[in-house]
Records
---
Amino acid sequence: MATLGEKFFAWFDERFNLKEDLRKILKKPVPPYATHPMYCLGGISFLCYLVLVVTGILLARYYIPTPEEAYSSVKFIMQEVTFGSLFRSIHHWAANMMIAAVVLHMFRVYLTGAFKKPRELNWIAGVALLLTTLIFGFSGYLLPWDQLSYWATTVGLQIPASIPVLGPAILKIFIGGAEVGAETLARFYFLHVFLLPMIVFMLLGMHFFMVRRQGISEPL
Amino acid sequence: MNKQTTRRKFLFGFIGAAFAVYITGPLAMMLKFLWPPRKAGEEATVVIAKASEVPVGSAKEKWQFEKFPAILIHNEEGFRAFAVKCTHLGCTAQWRVEYGGYKRPVLFCPCHDGIFDTKTGKVLAGPPPAALPEIQLEEKDGKIIAVRWKDLKYVKTLDVYKT
């Protein structure tokens, strides 16, 4: 007597022959040492990312990336839209949590020596993910377009601008003009909702593929 | 195979049902989020009552317009509607056929003895600083419908009507 779920799966299995492949992917045992909380930080980062994707898609429904409308649309989300303040707050806190989790994940990997051969490339993918996460946070911070975010961006952009030789060019690409303005807002919005999600998606694919192929490194 | 429910199947069904309940809440909230909220000043029709239910000289209380308590009044000149959140400190003014020296219907706020006129909403006595805002009415198929604020700009000047 097959349950509804089993019948549903059987329909796909009959056509795509999934059973064997799925068994390999889903039934792979987690090594006992990897159930320690310190080994969950990567998964927590990913969970935060999923929460951010869902709440971010919702917020994009009301947010308007122009200097005239940005602040008032955020205010509209916070004060008028049903559950608006809830979803924006979840987005805000999940972003903070994600950066904390990603940094702690890096510490765990570093301190357990998990970056050593054969996992060098996965470490590099992880560092790229850390940097994208930070740029994610930085670009999202400008979007409410209030005094805090405006000056945080103006000051924060001085960090890449201080890089020798390349600094001024990087600043110009981010800022899109003489100073932080409508162009910058449009560029940060594009980064935040289009480019960075795609980059993170690709890097995560590589990150997960490599950890599956190479296994989770054993503790010291 | 017999059709007996095994413990495994029962537990899976139980967990599935719990999960369905668990996931429905957030999904409903997301749908509610995506539903565009009305912007202030947009029409917010409320069907108040059938015209025949409110004879001349009476009023219908206990309904809301834009989340504010409101009253429908029928006098010899016709139907009128006001929001009855007192402009003083926000108590709800009530319909009184007679009150004190007034031998005609008035709107009476019990908190600090504010008294409003039933035809214009203006302050007759007491501490309220401003008149009650009037609501535009329409009559359709024998029903009285509240449509919009008669003077939205005026409503926005009232402290107790800030949302």
---
Amino acid sequence: MVEAAVSYQGVTFRYHEAGAAALQDFTATVPKGRLTAVIGHTGSGKSTLMQLTDGLLTPTAGQLEVLGQVITPRTKNKALHQLHRQVGFVFQFPEHQLFAETVLADVMFGPLNLGQTPAQAKQAAHQALVQLGVGEALWQRSPFELSGGQQRRVAIAGVLAMRPQLLILDEPTAGVDPDGQRELLALVERLKGQGLTILLITHQMEQVAQLADTVLVLAHGQLQFSGQPRALFAQPEFLTTQQLALPAAVAFAKQLQTAGISQFNQLPLTLDELAHALARQLKGDHHEQ
Amino acid sequence: MNNKVLFGMYLPGNSLMHRLDPRLKLVGCFWFVILVFFARTWWTNLLLIGALGLVIWLSQVKFSKYWAGIRPLMWIILFTAVIQALFSSGGQVYWHWGWLAVTSAGVAQAGFLVLRFFLIITSSTVVTVTTTPLQLADALEALMKPLKYLRVPVSQLAMMVSIALRFVPTIMDEVGLIMNAQRARGMDFSSGSLFTRAKRLVPVMIPLFVAAFKRAEELAVAMEARGYDPNQARTKFRQLHWQRHDTWGTVVWGLLTVALVALRFVK
Amino acid sequence: MIEVSNLTFQYPHQDQPVLQGLSLTIPTGQWLAVVGKNGSGKSTLARLIAGLLPTPAQTIRVNDLPVDEAHLAALHHQIGFVFQNPDNQFVGATVEADVAFGLENRQVPAAAMEPRIEQALAQVGMTAYRHHQPEQLSGGQKQRVAIAGALALQPQILILDEATSMLDPQGRQTVLQRLQQIHQAQALTIISITHDPVEVAMADQVAVLDQGQILRLATPAVVLNDQALVQQVGLVQPFSMQLRDRLQHYGVPVPKEYLTKGALEQWLKRQLATRA
């Protein structure tokens, strides 16, 4: 059993006292050092859940424990502030939050807020920018002069420079061209390899299949599924009722199965798994795995 | 997310007040305010309260909603009333301290003052509660049409207003998002001196302005691509239609005026 | 028909032209996908065709109409334009008001607007959302409204400037499906600027732009099958091509030609049948 980085215990959240619950009696855990994908449509409550996890909201009822810190409806602002320091939150289209005069100053903003000295903050910023592959030539430029893809990377560096123990990524590849997407996904994979706990909100089922250790599916403010991606994609009826797509590889494998062309003992999740399984079959080795 | 606050105080509904022509509501409200200043006796004020009660009843919106609109202004009203009561003279003196005195005339004047505030605020709330901001903009445009002859760019102004209204919720969302993002980056908006707090708005205001300029630019191009030319005449999809209930509304307000004048002059 | 001949364009604040002597003919009714890296000039080209930038004289003709200041109004009549950001092109307070915006500009009488709005909304499957406000819609729905707004003006050409790039996969899929239906139903010329392999595959022709020039003009099958080209211009190959390459990597001799998902499926069927 892996240690939990976050555990939600019957968390309910309402934006208005009388309004509908954006999150209803939500119970789940996020394993430490793993990547957990969070999927759900607009209005499913996933953004609310992420804001609670970063202490940007406090629950209306129930409690959650994030990195050992318990948050209840009565938790004070100061304690929440402590949480912002440990959790990194990369919002959707994070480049829209850039503001400083130079790239470097923008990335230093977070570390300085943590109370680091300018020298420390600068060092943290340097490291993060290098990690994101933002060349030194750009550091003294205005962030607004950069291309969209570069801005995205600077914005992510601004969060990583705070060296969070838990990283929330909300659709990090949205609106980025294929090259940029590839680079960002490689970064996520690297961070995962370094043992960082990551919560990844995504609509791309390929990303779930490829990167996630566990998946949380939300709908109407309630948890619908919690488990491994393979278990999720093995339930086509469930996915249909949730209006979720299959990853392309899974969909193609299913198609081959229903057409009676091929059978898989275990459904392949990624393109590589599918190609591997098919290659074995084509070479006459029917006893795959 | 279900926390979208509707701009203004509009409450969706289909009551007679909702269906009334916004031009009539706007002019009617304005006229009512004039009548409020015209009414100086208890009887005339009672008549106005009756008229307001009728309109509130017709709007099918609970009075508590109106009350919620008045409540935040209550302290200002009461404060003004107290000042009025203390500084006016005449009639019987109930209490005095130096040149401050509470007299019967002062109390009466203060009472009228509170009543006037109440009538004016509530009547305009009836309009905003039953009319969408866009309908109001349409009504304003229609009413300002004569100004076109004075070379006032009425339709351009109306376009500006309706686009501003359209983007209020979008920009509100954006403010919330940017603030959250900067809080997540360790920014603390809730402590420190006024100066440090003001300084902290920089990381919010700059992204907001950048987004606003970008939006304005993109919107302008998109509007051009769809054939918008500020110097060209446009037709209107949302037409304001004067209907029979609007005529009746006008008649009722006319009768109210006549009754008020009668009550005031014919003793 | 759109004719672009020897078009060179430079933004005032830049030291290099984005487009350099570009020529291109787009026949009526064609769906042309324009691909290329960011900064290759594809968006500029689209805007020049639509007269949204000062077009150099005598370089572009749209249905025999020269694109210049004097013909702008007539040009906007013929061309519908859908932009990237769903929020920044939604002008109306409601869905129907937004679709009406273009009609109002064109001084269509109010009575004549109704059927055109209804039809345009039906074409994009947004009839049920007529009275919704933009905040109540998803990105994909807003883009469908934007397409309806263009269609209501009955254009001959529809230009989509990365119109699906900010959408989630499902939003994108619905938009593309609707476009396909519309394209099949009427002889609408479509120019779509995109990075999405699925969108590219839907086109009749693909223009590959690189450094302000057309590097290649060919069918999607030819372009997408050219892996070096695909990588050079920052695209990804469609799923079927990726799978084919991966199978080859595992030593399966899959034919080198372009394969759709269906064709690949059939090929696998034949191969596995002979094995069994």
